[in-house]
């Protein structure tokens, strides 16, 4: 590079941004010519020759530039888009854009090569890279993971900055300005072989207009694990997201920087300084010319990103095109995504889109993205791209032929539709449509929207309530405006047309007026003095005018605010507005039909009576009308003001003062009027109807206190005024009583979670009126009409010409009467039963269904809900799921057979203990059971539906098994056993489903069939929701059948079609998601019920064997009372994961467990610490408490346990996971929160160990109660070495009391030989997946250790 002539005050070095380059003259010569003192070089630095290659680090550049020191590896040269390069190099060099990659050797001050740097996606200077200066873009390097220093460090007395990638650190030597340089040279072959290579920029596609994108994403990811460091060395603070969603890069804080910013912020602490940087943006950290040796005055704007307002939402935009007199007109519509704020800007031609963008940014603000149609060239112009790059706005494009992706498209259609309506009704000229478009958008932005919870888009965007006092005219309305240049004697008020509101001229009530057509130069002007022009009015003031504020409704209590607004009734067509400002009166004809606040006009029984009563008491109205609480949002009830409502019963607040009342005479006969005092002085006369609308509480209290209306009767002889007051006071007191119990919840901070009562109040659901039943809809199944009643079933048979439904009814009733379920009574006995108070009536009816093979099915049911259950036994237990798995394991270990059986009509074998009678309908008569319909019958058997039927059957089955010499086990009351040679026979009961384990199952069922009739008795295939698959001589327990049915119900609950729409997921819960920290919106009632239904299905899935979702269900089920949107999304993700892997099985294997893990202290002796401890379950107790083991095979047991310390970030509680094994079969698993907060992982692990110890004691008790001998101690597998070692060492000590109890419990059972603690690696701990959310591959790996 050659030098150029300079004047005094200039430097011979050429400044490009922060980079400084030497000319051919020496510094001393140039400084002497310029008359300035040269700056000495830093000690240790060599003087650079004019042709030595160097590279500068530049934070103003958006793309790296490669000079002659770089060897170009690959790339293709083409013309440079100069709008993408904001670095000053674009004005000094002839640049070409090239997606090039180059390598160069970095050398230090002593000319020693240090490393080779590789730069991808760079620009080549002069087209061939012959410029000796190169530039390294900070944004490209940071996005590739390169670490950059923020300030100077001290190394060997040399002040420098540095670039660090991996373990290689490259110093940047200073030039006297803020930026520094790297010394470079072209790499030799020896350099390529011997020197390490550092990749500074990524080879991924790089868009200079979006230079921050990858850096921001990386910043957000590092934020999740970042921490603050307090040190004198440079430390990195975690990256943060500001309130507008902007993510900032990490900052490296030194002690010096913290001191500087502490002073700048008013001597605040280091934490405050760091938090301040997280809560603010620093888009322009370096100012142009701030560190220049020869500053000069700036003529251009240098802080473009800071000029407009920043909007934290996206903006959709679309170009509007319409025609007027054969000529196309253009405009640009902008729509903000969150606030729904709409802005329209007219354009002279289609290519002026960039001016519309600039005006929108100036008037409204700079959004995060501009989203436009990819097919519109005006939105992709170079000027628009340059504008977006200047303000750091990202660009997005919609997919081709996908107009629905651009939300502005829909608003364009609505805008044209509304404009056509306004134009057709007012007959406006299309020439001024651009003003109409702007005015419509202005109105939209100030109109309440249900999507914004009845807020306006203006408020959603700006955060302040807009005022609509300036909306005084409709589009194209005739008006009078003040002519400023009109001279006497002409009238100053001239005719015109209203075409909009001027937001850039005058005050807030300045309007855009189109002058009259007779004007020589018809134009649109701005005027602030504008009045309506009435039809037929030829001169201003010719006709009487209404008050200026007539169109704005008022209240008798103006101090009540928005909460006092009451929705007005529909306008009376016969109403004529009186002169002056008065209340709108209610049509008496309509008053008779009102059901809440208005009453009919009364007719006095004493004609001519005129009652006037003066009340000295001050009656206030302190709340809104409880009958007409406004509902601002469709489908969502408004929040009631509890302080106001409950205050009504305690202490009245300042409000309305009713002075007196009177009944009218003559034409106003029977009309009740009140005189009320105005808050600012004076009185106001209002009718009764108006008072019931504006201040019902004050009116009702006044009327009751002064007996207003007790002596007057209406047309029907009632007392409407008096009855209304009594009813209102009664309902008010009832509402107040109900609201008082929720008052404390309402007084909580609004940011806290509301109470259940508050949520229910917010839903605002109406009660169903008694006596009104919703008509049932017609039901069809498999294309067949399903009747709702027996009468309808017989009618369908007549229409269809068959007896299918009649046959189904007869089959059901014959089966019922086979067991003598009913005892039919004659008339005398029926009368005695009806008069006997010991008997209760319950209705019976038939329900119908269609089976998959199109068979008709009828089922007789009884209304047990009509019966008082008090005094009846209702207890009936069933076998636990883990007991069934233990029985299957016992069968596998002892070579026993397994079979299941289903007793048909089980309940009907038992007699009912309740005294119930019913009436038999037409179905009994047509089935031939009774002679005529309507006969009374006693219910003899335990019919399905009665509250005590379950207990009666449970009791009868117990008596049957006792008669077969079975005995209950103490471990599970519904597992029965009896000796059979050297083994035991087992029967597990679950209502009418039996699981039999025996060496001869046929003999057991043969005995049972003597008493009961079975539907099936076979080897298990599907029992209690679990699939039984025999493979390689052993059973596998699966859940595929139930999973398919569960997924079908999930799709129905979510309203989606099929599993394809549900989708799949690799993991059930996002490992970064914390449900307790979720701040999304609360679910509405319908979503709440769906969430509870999905969680309930998940609980049963875990119970039958899907322990891989156990942690997810445990984490989300805690929020069933207050679920949020994020919770629902995660439970749906769980079912997507289940949809991905539907078939998972557990192997039933009774063999001894494999020995894994390490016993840390095998020779530990606890005799001195616990000298008398021994297991209570010894053989000497067998004759008394447990069955003898006979010839049963001894079995081993083991429990895997783990804890996740402080799992809950809100409460600090840990979570315990546990998997229990009998033999090699997992029988029980759990994932639950601990009951106390632990200070350390050590304490949390001991609490988990204590829970595992208690589970081991219970498991051994169950096995011994089943007659199964135990083989050795129950092994406890844990992965916390400190906890296992403390449990095994006799010399261990602990001082914390609650942890000490767990510590003693674990050690005591270890000393007694009940348990043995073993340490296993985390990857071998099978309970790890029950304590935390794991990624998909890790979860599958750990779950496969349990599944077969």
Give a nutshell description of this structure.
This protein is an alpha+beta fold and 1348 residues long. 27% of the residues lie in helices and 21% in strands.
Q: What would you note in describing this structure?
A:
There is one protein chain. This protein is 27% helix and 21% strand. With 1348 residues, the chain is an alpha+beta fold. The strands form twelve sheets. Strands 3, 4, 5, 6, 7, 8, 9, 10, 11, 12, 13, 14 and 15 form a 13-stranded mixed beta sheet that branches. Helix 19 packs across helix 20. The chain is extended and about 125 Å long.
List the helices and strands and how they pair.
Layout: E1 14-16, E2 19-21, H1 27-34, E3 54-58, E4 65-66, E5 71-74, E6 77-79, E7 95-107, E8 113-125, E9 133-137, H2 138-143, E10 147-148, E11 153-155, E12 158-165, E13 168-174, E14 180-185, H3 189-194, E15 197-199, H4 213-223, E16 235-236, E17 252-253, H5 255-264, H6 270-279, E18 315-324, E19 327-336, E20 342-347, H7 353-363, E21 369-372, H8 382-390, E22 394-397, H9 407-426, H10 433-444, H11 457-462, E23 478-482, E24 493-501, E25 511-515, E26 524-527, E27 530-532, H12 588-591, E28 612-614, H13 642-648, E29 657-663, E30 672-677, E31 683-687, H14 688-694, H15 696-705, H16 720-740, H17 743-746, H18 756-763, E32 779-781, E33 784-786, H19 790-800, H20 804-817, E34 822-824, H21 827-835, E35 840-841, E36 844-850, E37 856-862, H22 881-894, E38 897-903, E39 916-919, H23 922-926, E40 936-939, H24 949-963, E41 967-968, E42 975-980, E43 983-990, E44 993-998, H25 1001-1008, E45 1014-1018, E46 1022-1023, E47 1026-1031, E48 1034-1038, H26 1040-1054, H27 1058-1062, H28 1085-1103, H29 1110-1117, H30 1125-1140, E49 1145-1147, H31 1182-1185, ...
Parallel strand pairs: 3-9, 4-8, 8-15, 18-21, 21-22, 35-39, 50-53, 53-54
Antiparallel strand pairs: 1-2, 3-14, 5-7, 6-7, 7-8, 7-14, 10-12, 11-12, 12-13, 13-14, 16-17, 18-19, 19-20, 23-24, 23-27, 24-25, 25-26, 28-29, 29-30, 30-31, 32-33, 34-40, 36-37, 38-44, 38-45, 39-40, 41-42, 42-43, 43-44, 46-47, 47-48, 48-49, 50-51, 51-52
Helix pairs in contact: 5-6, 9-10, 13-16, 14-15, 15-16, 19-20, 26-28, 28-29, 28-30, 32-34
